[in-house]
Amino acid sequence: MSTYAIGDIQGCYTELHRLLEVIQFNPKEDLLWCTGDLVNRGPHSLEVLRFIKQLGNRAITVLGNHDLHLLAVAREHTDYLHPQDTLKPVLQAADGEELIDWLRRRPFLHHDADLGLTLIHAGLPPQWDLLQARQCACEVEETIRGPKYYKYLANLYGDIPDKWSNNLTGWDRLRFITNCFTRLRYCNAKGKLALKKKGPPGTEKFNNGEYIPWFLVPNRASQEMQIIFGHWSTLGYYAGNGVYALDTGCLWGGMLTALRLEDRMLFQVPCAGECQPGEA
């Protein structure tokens, strides 16, 4: 049995199946970990959702920002629908409601003690160790799966608060937690988030270099963890500092990447690209 972690798919169903052929994925024996953002901008979000869902417990996917966007749009927050979105086939499908319900029950964090690895979509603020991250993930998971689901989605969007405090409460607390798990790339040494910054390290010049990739913050509480994440296509594949970044820009004409977790072997397939940089 092998466990494979795959970077952001974003509706690129053809490339997903090409990658699964390369790794000779056997759904009866192997496991898939997905870094989130199963959907949007690519052409086949519906097919990707159906495929991952039908794998049952052979696939684990965490929630990404595009997955949350689909949940918000599906719950009649139609003002959130963007011209570049490719979510209508999911919304119009006969099994759309079933898929939406399945998606909102996915975790924000998955930890495997035997492998010593943790799966998230984006990042962790420097104050969180594994215990704190798991507790925060449980908070948002309970909310999105519970009776406050609609209110959570209505209060999801925004960049404030931008710094962690144990004293955060209510929607501010849940929004900050969600932003870390699904949007974080850069922060400063004190954990102040810079959510608008998306470029690769070395190209984002702001505040005299105060902001750095979250996984390079000195003495972050999660530095003993081994973390797999996606979300950051301009970073590309990165292995170091206790992290593995697997979003290699399939949507943009880059690669779709899989990492075999038992031996860290890398597999990639080239992608034609469904969007040009700047379209999203």
Please write out the topology:
Layout: E1 3-6, H1 13-22, E2 31-34, H2 45-54, E3 59-61, H3 65-74, H4 88-92, H5 96-103, E4 110-112, E5 117-119, H6 130-145, H7 149-154, H8 170-183, E6 186-187, E7 193-194, E8 212-213, E9 227-229, E10 238-240, E11 243-245, E12 255-260, E13 265-270
Parallel strand pairs: 1-2, 2-3, 5-9, 9-11
Antiparallel strand pairs: 1-12, 4-5, 6-7, 6-8, 10-11, 12-13
Helix pairs in contact: 2-5, 6-8
Characteristics:
five-stranded mixed beta sheet; alpha/beta; 280 residues; Purple Acid Phosphatase, chain A, domain 2
How would you sum up this structure, described in words?
The chain has 280 residues and is an alpha/beta fold. The longest helix is centred in the middle third of the chain and has 16 residues, at 130-145. It is globular. It contains 8 helices and 13 strands. Helix 2 packs across helix 5 (96-103). A hairpin with a 2-residue loop joins strand 10 and strand 11 (243-245). It has one domain (3-270): Purple Acid Phosphatase, chain A, domain 2 (4-Layer Sandwich), CATH 3.60.21. The strands form 3 sheets. A 5-stranded mixed β-sheet has the order 3-2-1-12-13, covered by helices on one side. The chain has a 5-stranded mixed β-sheet with strand order 4-5-9-11-10, with no helix packed on it.
